[in-house]
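Try this one yourself first.
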């Protein structure tokens, strides 16, 4: 299972998720943003950092590592990367913390003697996902993280339960995101199945879900109800395109805030098949430039 991209998407979309795992999160946890950064001279690759909001007094930076295979030099690398990055950007931050996530204790680096002072301090928190066994007892966001470690035999039932919980209690935006992320995690888990087969496994009937019904209502408010005239296939397809475009606009707005007008205009010209392809492609986008490049590729293909 390709967990790196899953976790990147999880924490990019839900930066407050990691703070639910620690006992003393910052008061402004919801304002943090997640980035993957490179430290040069020498070059290190940090899994991610959680940056305090800009424009305020220097805050605390959180360095983040998630490790699913034994690495006997993980802590060497983590502290070298963290200290170098903190040194390069010292004026921006008041203090630092580090969070390391393991699926189980047996994966953790064995030789930790040089780092005992740090590991036993409040600066470094090691989280073991095996300690969070009951997905019903944790938030939806943490349960989503645990789904990545759930055995395949149990994963479908766990995923369906998460979707049901999100439909019943979550705000509409989170419920939409849960559908997207649960489906994506299951596609990565069951690589021999298509996305449509995974959706069938999860018993996802998008047209019947509360959040998609709301998207349909919003589409009708935009004056496109005429495109849904019963018995006209063209109208039904246009209606589906309205739903898809409406959902994609919200996903992009959540990820990249306001889109440049030229890009927003290009989205309005996409056909339903293109929108369906974009719905999956945008899961891998990390910037507006990725979206612009994808749109340019579609434009070139039509020439």
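Now uncover the answer:
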């Amino acid at each position: 299972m390709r967990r790196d991209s899953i976790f990147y998407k999880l924490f990019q979309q839900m930066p407050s998720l990691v703070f639910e795992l620690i006992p003393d999160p910052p008061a402004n946890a919801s304002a943090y943003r997640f980035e993957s950064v490179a430290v040069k001279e020498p070059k290190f690759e940090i899994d991610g950092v959680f940056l305090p909001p800009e424009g305020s007094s220097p805050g605390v930076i959180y360095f983040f590592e998630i490790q699913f295979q034994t690495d006997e030099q993980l802590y060497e690398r983590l502290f070298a990367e963290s200290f170098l990055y903190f040194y390069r950007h010292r004026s921006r931050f008041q203090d630092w913390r580090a969070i390391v996530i393991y699926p189980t204790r047996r994966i953790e680096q064995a030789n930790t003697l040089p780092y005992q002072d740090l590991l036993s301090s409040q600066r470094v928190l090691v989280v073991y996902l095996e300690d969070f066994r009951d997905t019903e007892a944790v938030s939806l966001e943490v349960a989503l993280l645990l789904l990545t470690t759930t055995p395949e035999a149990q994963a479908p039932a766990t995923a369906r339960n998460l979707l049901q919980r999100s439909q019943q209690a979550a705000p509409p935006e989170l419920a939409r995101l849960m559908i997207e992320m649960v489906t994506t995690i299951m596609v990565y888990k069951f690589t021999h199945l298509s996305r449509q087969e995974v959706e069938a496994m999860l018993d996802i009937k998008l047209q019947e879900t509360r959040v998609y019904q709301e998207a349909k209502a919003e589409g009708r408010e935009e004056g496109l109800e005429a495109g849904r005239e019963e018995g006209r296939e063209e109208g039904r397809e246009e209606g589906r395109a309205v739903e898809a475009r409406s959902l994609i606009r919200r996903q992009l707005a959540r990820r990249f805030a306001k889109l440049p007008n030229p890009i927003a205009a290009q989205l309005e010209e996409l056909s339903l098949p293109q929108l369906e392809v974009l719905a999956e492609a945008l899961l891998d986008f990390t910037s507006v430039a990725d979206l612009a490049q994808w749109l340019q590729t579609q434009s070139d293909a039509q020439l």
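Discussion: The CA atoms of residues 25 and 62 lie 10 Å apart. Residues 223-232 have pLDDT under 50 and may be disordered.
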